[in-house]
Amino acid sequence: MKALIFGTTGQLGIELARRAPRDVTVATLGRDRADLTDPAACAAAITATDADIIINAAAYTAVDQAESDRDTAFLVNAEAPGAMACAAATRGLPFLHVSTDYVFDGSGTRPWAENDPVAPLGVYGESKLAGERAVAAARGGHVILRTAWVFSAHGKNFVKTMLRVGAGRDMLSVVDDQRGGPTAASDIADVLWTITAAFQNGKGQSGIFHFAGTPSVSWADFAEAIFARASLPKKPQIKRIPTLDYPTPAKRPANSTLDCSRIRAVYGIEQPDWHKSLAKVIDELETAG
Ligand SMILES: NC(=O)C1=CN([C@@H]2O[C@H](COP(=O)(O)OP(=O)(O)OC[C@H]3O[C@@H](n4cnc5c(N)ncnc54)[C@H](OP(=O)(O)O)[C@@H]3O)[C@@H](O)[C@H]2O)C=CC1
Ligand SMILES: Cc1cn([C@H]2C[C@H](O)[C@@H](COP(=O)(O)OP(=O)(O)O[C@H]3O[C@@H](C)C(=O)[C@@H](O)[C@H]3O)O2)c(=O)[nH]c1=O
């Protein structure tokens, strides 16, 4: 069994390579060999591959920057995945794609189910939604895994930002009215490998699935948990602020919590407690120095 992974330098790409099962050979394509701003080239790589399954871990993830870089965000997050999914469908290869909680507008307090109405608040979410639709429209075997608030010891994420900007500070202001499920990239990688095995055994089911860590918390709660776990000589006090007091170019959903019951029913995948994964990530960061 061979898997072809796009996006090898990101949080998820790194964890996919690290956590690949023994019976899976991994082939990776980074930006140097498959640039998603060139959808046709990415599709051609799939047409030429000898892999049995395609995993797309590449994306334009700069939420604020996307507001002023719409064309690139749509090329990378929508057009390229669409072309790649079409090439995969033509070859009969399953296509595993990753999407986001930011396809929702964040209204209400109920966790979002897969078939709830989507209404992204910003360009990043719009482009990811267009990508979901393009992947589904290719009509091949596919999984669109919507996840949220991804963290790991690599790349750019909220955990690393907090440790960088909070170290040595007395006080750090963090928004308390956006809630979601922090999700470790390592846990997402494990889910994608479980789904890969299901497709390998002829038991893969196509569609959109939600997967996020539990419990759902605010960014301020998450920041407190990060500093509680970190071994810092001085830890900042978290000042809980409303989103209004932390203006950003892109609007973010207030309620980002995902209902993950479908993936449990279909694939037997449980929501991981993010506290455990956070502890491992902070240990990894502190060991690396
Ligand atoms: N980060 C998060 O909080 C969340 C992420 N997601 C989704 O999860 C998936 C994985 O995200 P994550 O691992 O955090 O992303 P990262 O930002 O950590 O990594 C993005 C990856 O995409 C690659 N990439 C970006 N642009 C291009 C391009 N033009 N051509 C080729 N490769 C490109 C990057 O390569 P390079 O290093 O060369 O830039 C990198 O390997 C994405 O689909 C994302 O939308 C969903 C919810 C939350
Ligand atoms: C750095 C910082 C951020 N914040 C706020 C801003 C924002 O509302 C919230 C999160 O900020 P970030 O910019 O780190 O996170 P953001 O880039 O919005 O994270 C998102 O990334 C994309 C890719 C996704 O798909 C989403 O699921 C989500 O994880 O925290 C503070 O309140 N205080 C701070 O010091």
TrEMBL record:
Catalyses which reaction(s): dTDP-beta-L-rhamnose + NADP(+) = dTDP-4-dehydro-beta-L-rhamnose + NADPH + H(+)
Class in the EC hierarchy, top level: oxidoreductase
Q: Which SUPFAM superfamilies match?
A: NAD(P)-binding Rossmann-fold domains (SSF51735)
Co-factor remark: Binds 1 Mg(2+) ion per monomer.
In short, the EC number is 1.1.1.133
Q: Which molecular function terms from Gene Ontology are attached? A: dTDP-4-dehydrorhamnose reductase activity
- Pathway(s) this gene product operates in, as recorded in its UniProt entry: Carbohydrate biosynthesis; dTDP-L-rhamnose biosynthesis
- On the tree of life, the source organism's domain of life is Bacteria
The UniProt entry, under InterPro entries, shows: dTDP_dehydrorham_reduct (IPR005913), NAD(P)-bd_dom_sf (IPR036291), RmlD-like-bd (IPR029903)
The coenzyme or cofactor needed here is: Mg(2+)
Domain RmlD-like substrate binding: residue ranges: 1-285
Q: Which UniProt keywords apply?
A: NADP, Oxidoreductase
Q: What does this protein do?
A: Catalyzes the reduction of dTDP-6-deoxy-L-lyxo-4-hexulose to yield dTDP-L-rhamnose.
Indicate the family of this protein. Belongs to the dTDP-4-dehydrorhamnose reductase family.
Task: Tell me what this protein is called.
Answer: dTDP-4-dehydrorhamnose reductase
State the species of origin.
Answer: Albidovulum litorale
